[in-house]
């Protein structure tokens, strides 16, 4: 029996040399192991140990490196808001710049979500205001937008940002927010910090900014949202169609007409009722002249 075991007492040097190349074990170490005089059972144990533990170690190492590469390649960004003025005397002067930085090492393909700070063509609620740490927020007077991320991806409506690249988006907030309900004072202006990234496989992925830095602006003077004839022009511009069928265009035009009629009726009612009424309180709460004026202006088309 001992004679049957002796041939495997020491693994051949050539075979161990192959292990050296595959797993990075030093050749001199291999030679020392191969030349060691030991009992047959110990040599057999060493051979099994090399053949089992080294492949397992190599596999675990490869898996760790693969997982590490996935973590390193994860997309990442930061978003910040800045203002050229630390204080403004009117909402009409409320202008900010949103800055997005690709802080990862993967190219970002962000959909041009009109509800995000990237949607500069739309007066959407893409900012959040905090006054002295409270939850009090100015009234939103802008547009609510329904859009399709799938369609946006299909028509390549996205912004590509290279690693370490910075992109800026300027926003005029004068017509979007009404501060009359929260009053003057210092506000922190935060950008909506969640975006939609199209990954390398073409799938939409929700991506939240790792860092979000607000702007600090003190509001004063006229606090009501600005209403100008430009708003009507923008509303007319929104009625343009993109890849709509004739039936869909008809439905949209009918909806616009109906909405305009309802707004006109509400405006006429408010203009002719300058004191409290059950209808007013049901919709807008306790009556006061300043609030009534704001509500009336909101329905002016």
Automatic annotation (TrEMBL):
Keywords: Cleavage on pair of basic residues, Hydrolase, Membrane, Metal-binding, Metalloprotease, Protease, Signal, Transmembrane, Transmembrane helix, Zinc, Zymogen
Top-level class of the enzyme under EC nomenclature: hydrolase
Pfam families xrefs: Peptidase_M35 (PF02102)
Catalysed reaction, written as an equation: Preferential cleavage of bonds with hydrophobic residues in P1'. Also 3-Asn-|-Gln-4 and 8-Gly-|-Ser-9 bonds in insulin B chain
Keyword NAD applies: no
EC number: 3.4.24.39
Superkingdom of origin organism: Eukaryota
GO terms of molecular function: metal ion binding; metalloendopeptidase activity
Similarity comment text for this entry: Belongs to the peptidase M35 family.
UniProt protein name: deuterolysin
Annotated organism of origin: Botryobasidium botryosum (strain FD-172 SS1)
């Amino acid at each position: 029996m001992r004679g049957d075991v002796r041939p495997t007492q020491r693994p051949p040097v050539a075979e161990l040399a192959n292990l050296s190349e595959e797993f990075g074990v030093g050749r001199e170490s291999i030679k020392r192991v191969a030349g060691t005089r030991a009992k047959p059972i110990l040599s057999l144990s060493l051979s099994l140990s090399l053949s089992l533990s080294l492949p397992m170690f190599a596999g675990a190492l490869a898996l760790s490196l693969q997982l590490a590469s996935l973590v390193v390649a994860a997309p990442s960004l930061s978003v910040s808001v800045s203002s050229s003025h630390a204080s403004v005397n009117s909402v009409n002067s409320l202008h900010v710049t949103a800055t997005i930085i690709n802080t990862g090492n993967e190219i970002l393909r962000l959909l041009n979500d009109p509800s995000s700070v990237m949607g500069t063509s739309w007066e959407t609620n893409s900012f959040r205001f905090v006054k002295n740490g409270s939850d009090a927020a100015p009234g939103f007077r802008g547009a609510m937008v329904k859009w399709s991320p799938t369609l946006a991806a299909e028509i390549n409506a996205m912004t590509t940002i290279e690693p370490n690249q910075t992109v800026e988006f300027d926003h005029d907030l004068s017509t979007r927010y009404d501060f009359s309900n929260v009053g003057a004072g210092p506000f922190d202006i935060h950008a909506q910090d969640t975006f939609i990234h199209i990954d390398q496989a073409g799938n939409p992925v929700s991506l939240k900014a790792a860092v979000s830095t607000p702007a600090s602006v003190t509001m004063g003077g006229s606090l009501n949202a600005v209403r100008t004839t430009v708003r009507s022009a923008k509303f007319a511009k929104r009625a343009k169609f993109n890849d709509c069928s004739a039936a869909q265009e008809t439905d949209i035009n009918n909806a616009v007409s109906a909405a305009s009629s309802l707004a006109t009726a509400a405006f006429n009612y408010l203009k002719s009722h300058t004191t409290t009424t059950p209808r007013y309180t049901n919709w807008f709460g306790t009556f006061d002249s300043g609030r009534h004026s704001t509500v009336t202006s909101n329905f002016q088309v």
